[in-house]
């Protein structure tokens, strides 16, 4: 059996509150080396509070956090096992990419020559070699995000915490961030990231945790969560030419459909045998014309909507 001392992260019964308002309500979590866990949840769910607690920036009111057997709040040694990339990037804009990495290396206790060698390796890993001498202020959002991730692993921590790694990164540049997270996972980093971006989470995570009002309401691999919440059913979705008026909603609800929370012209429901529902949908009168229908396997966005009863963020897909 793996003990707490071997694991990059063990969170046990963590509670936190701000001025009497509960923000974390008994969180349990473990993370193995080479595993990526995406922490999802609506605004204010407690994701950043949990990341800050794990990083040792906030003390839990109750419960404990262990990083390779050390408490990040009390033991400096634990902080040496953690790399943190905050949502708002922490880089020196007037220094070059290479200089930034070297400065971070020295802050983490590497010697000058160690920091140089490690910066070289990480410039290659992040595909920023040709930008090594460029000032950070001149780099794109995606490049800066990759560089900040590199800075956070200069000292080879066991645990990497990424708070909203897609912020400031456009859709195309996100591929570079995805590739980097995958490479770091292959190198054995345990990675915990918060995100609102379902596509990013689906692309890189081994497990998902969904927080709502400080409670972990779902946790597991995406495959397990899909079976738990949808069994063998698939998602049937109809897109209408116009939003549905209240008077037409009954007919759709009788088919077992409900509006997609973030888009009232899309209605969806679960079905094991989709043909029947599709035929009945086409026969409906007094509803606007159907412009598209689809039948698909549930994805992370569907699991998220199902357990949180909240819309998925705009940028997310499906
Ligand atoms: N410094 C603070 N003082 C008081 N309340 C706070 C503080 N920081 C966060 N909170 C509250 O704690 C709760 C959890 O906030 P947190 O930032 O952890 O959520 P989040 O899931 O990261 O949200 P988002 O997705 O919007 O970043 C919220 O109700 C928030 O208002």
UniProtKB/TrEMBL annotation:
Gene3D superfamilies: P-loop containing nucleotide triphosphate hydrolases. Keywords: ATP-binding, Nodulation, Nucleotide-binding, Transport. The keyword Transport applies. Residues 9-238 form the ABC transporter domain. The keyword Transport applies. GO terms for molecular function: ATP binding; ATP hydrolysis activity. CDD domains: ABC_subfamily_A. Pfam families: ABC_tran (PF00005). It comes from the Bacteria. Belongs to the ABC transporter superfamily. This is ABC transporter ATP-binding protein. It comes from Aquisalinus luteolus.
């Amino acid at each position: 059996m793996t003990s707490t001392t071997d694991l990059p992260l063990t969170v046990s019964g963590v509670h936190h509150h701000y001025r009497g308002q509960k923000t974390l309500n008994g969180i349990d979590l473990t993370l193995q080396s080479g595993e990526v866990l995406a922490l999802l949840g609506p605004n204010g769910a407690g994701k950043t509070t949990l990341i800050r607690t794990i990083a040792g920036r906030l003390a839990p009111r109750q419960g404990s956090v262990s990083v390779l057997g050390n408490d990040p709040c009390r033991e400096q040694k634990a902080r040496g096992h953690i790399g943190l990339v905050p949502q708002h990037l922490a880089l020196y804009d007037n220094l070059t990419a290479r200089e930034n990495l070297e400065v971070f290396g020295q802050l983490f206790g590497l010697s000058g020559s160690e920091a140089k060698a490690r910066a070289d390796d990480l410039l290659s890993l992040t595909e920023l070699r040709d930008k090594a001498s460029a000032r950070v202020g001149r780099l794109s959002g995606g490049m800066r995000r990759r560089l900040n991730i590199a800075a956070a692993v200069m000292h080879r921590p066991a645990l990497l915490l990424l708070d909203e790694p897609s912020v400031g990164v456009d859709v195309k540049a996100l591929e570079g961030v995805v590739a980097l997270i995958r490479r770091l996972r292959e190198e054995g980093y345990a990675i915990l990231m918060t995100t609102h971006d379902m596509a990013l989470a689906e692309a890189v995570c081994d497990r998902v945790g969904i927080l709502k009002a400080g409670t972990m309401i779902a946790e597991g691999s995406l495959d397990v969560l899909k079976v738990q919440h949808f069994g063998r059913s698939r998602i049937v979705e109809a897109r209408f030419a116009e939003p549905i008026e209240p008077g037409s909603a009954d007919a759709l609800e009788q088919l077992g459909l409900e509006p997609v929370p973030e888009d009232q012209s899309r209605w969806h429901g679960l079905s094991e045998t989709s043909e029947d529902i599709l035929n009945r949908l086409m026969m409906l009168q007094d509803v606007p014309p159907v412009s598209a229908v689809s039948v698909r396997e549930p994805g992370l966005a569907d699991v998220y909507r199902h357990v949180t009863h909240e819309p998925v963020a705009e940028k997310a897909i499906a």
